[in-house]
Amino acid sequence: MNPAPMQRARAVALVALALASGASSATAQVMTAPPLGATPALTVPVVQQGVLSNGVRLMVVRNAEVPLVEVRLIIDGGARPSGVAPGIATFTATMLTEGAGSRTALQLSEALDFIGARLNAGAGWENTTLSLSVPKRSVSEGFALLTDVLLRPSFRSVDVKRQRDLREAALLRAKDSPGQVASRVFYRNVFPATHPYHLDLVGDSSSTAGIDSAAVRTYWQRAADPKHATLILSGDVTLAEAQQWASAALGSWQSPASPLAKHDAKSVAAAPSPVTHIILVDKPEAAQSVIWVGTPGMSRNSPDYPAVEVMNTILGGSFSARLNDILREQLGYTYGANSGFSFAPVPGPFLARSDVRTNVTDSSLAIFFREIRKLGSEPVSAVELERARNYLVLGALGDYETAGQIAGALSTSVLFNRPLAAVSAELAAVGRVTAADVQRVAKIHLDTSRFTVVIVGDLAKIRPGIEKLGLGPIEVQTY
Fold first, then answer.
1. Are 130 and 96 contacting, i.e. CB atoms less than 8 angstroms apart?
2. Is the separation of the CB atoms in 135 and 117 below 8 Å?
3. Class for domain 277-476, per CATH?
4. Phi and psi torsions of 361, nearest 5°
5. E-assigned strand segments in 349-403
6. Does the N terminus or the C terminus of the chain have fewer Cβ atoms within 10 A?
7. Domain definitions of the chain by residue range
8. By percentage, how much of the chain surpasses pLDDT 70?
9. Among 42, 403, 94, 367, CA closest to 236
10. pTM attached to this predicted model
11. What is the pLDDT of residues 390-426, one digit of tens each?
12. What is the pLDDT of residues 330-364, one digit of tens each?
């Protein structure tokens, strides 16, 4: 008889017994979380600035730990200026990397891969941004490619047609997506027809059908204005190097004869806040209901901003927030629930949302209103308050570590015309927010008597329960 298997079995049994004994001993001990130390102070990077001869504003932050350079070219304008056709700004941004100079889209991608760089373009309501991430050794080559995309985009008819077909297909698919339907119905009802947010940023099927190569070229010729541009560089770069690279690459860039007119965000009238009403969109046999609850939001420059950030963190701005904890962790109605304010030069909405099981739609909606009302009627606990303040302050400390993060922070400072140094003061203000502050701003900015509710789901199953809640008049819309 071979004794080896018996010896191995005996050894395994002894190890298991030891582990069990250790586990039993561990469970008998009282486990306590280590105390939090003092919150470290945020050191905001020093920003150096300059101006090129053609008006391009230059912002530089040096961090030489890694030989990489992050570049952001931000051109004011975007989709918001009057006279800009719906969807043309975002469509043009897509087309910028579809071929430039002597290169097709594939050749441009190959050239970027060869030098280890990434180049992207995108547009929003306020601006168009070109982003370049490149090793320092290849900065000159990277800037040459960025300049081609900026000043010599191809805009070939065949490429425009392909991208137009792709957008039309995406818009068609969106009609079958409950989340996208809820988004578009929400925005067109919260913001009036005269407001830029009433329409979708990418336009619709009708506006897309009218886009051709000439329309794209005309828009970009007017939008690409160096006097409305800011060039951000972060990483292994000095101000002198940035000026040298930028002058060589962008020095010949001239303002168009007929530039887009800049419009102050303050000229956009605030959206009205009608009494609470509910909009239902039928999605027969849907297993879930998409719930969006919101109202016109507030300015990023409001003195209430620090308190509102803390308040929303408690409500739905973090995983441990009330909405997610109740609807997901306690009741299992959803995979997630969240809330937040959309901050932009033209204020976006406050929005709380979740996808819930069809049979708990009315219960979930009632919880949304109950928890929002509680913030204005009852002070939050000391534990919730401290956790929310720490979440915001400690989370912000990790937002300035990489060159990409710093470039992103500078882009935000440009968008809101706020110096980067203001971040430290805002975080200090967050640390001083009290329970009374949270309750005050909840009363002001989250008035549940003036909410717009959009629910996409199976009306035959969800409408009776929603009517019983008596939250407001109900309207059925189609999309």
1. yes
2. yes
3. alpha beta
4. -60, -50
5. 349-357
6. N
7. 48-262, 277-476
8. 94
9. 403
10. 0.89
11. 999 999 988 999 999 999 999 999 999 999 999 999 9
12. 999 999 999 999 999 999 999 999 999 999 999 99
- Written as six digits, the tokens of 74 are 């931000």
What secondary structure does DSSP assign to 286-344, as a single string?
A: -SEEEEEEEEE---TT-TTHHHHHHHHHHHTSSTTSHHHIIIIIIT--EEEEEEEE--S
Q: What's the token pair of residue 415?
A: 């968008």
- State the angle between helix axes of 361-377 and 459-469 in degrees (0 to 180), rounded to the nearest 10: 30
DSSP state of 258: S
- Give the tokens for residue 221: 């010729």
C-beta separation of 88 from 211 below 8 A? yes
Please give the structure tokens belonging to residue 292. 């969006």
**What average pLDDT does this structure show over 8-29?**
49
CA within 13 Å, CB half, 129: 19
**Chain segment 96-122, per-residue pLDDT in tens:** 999 999 999 999 999 999 999 999 999
User: Do 48-262 and 277-476 show the same overall fold?
Assistant: yes
DSSP tag of 153: B
H or E element in which residue 130 lies = strand 127-135
Angstrom distance (rounded) from CA 311 to CA 445: 10
Domain 48-262 has CATH 3.30.830.10: yes
> Is the pLDDT reported for residue 43 higher than 50?
yes
Distance separating alpha carbons of residues 243 and 334, to the nearest angstrom: 52
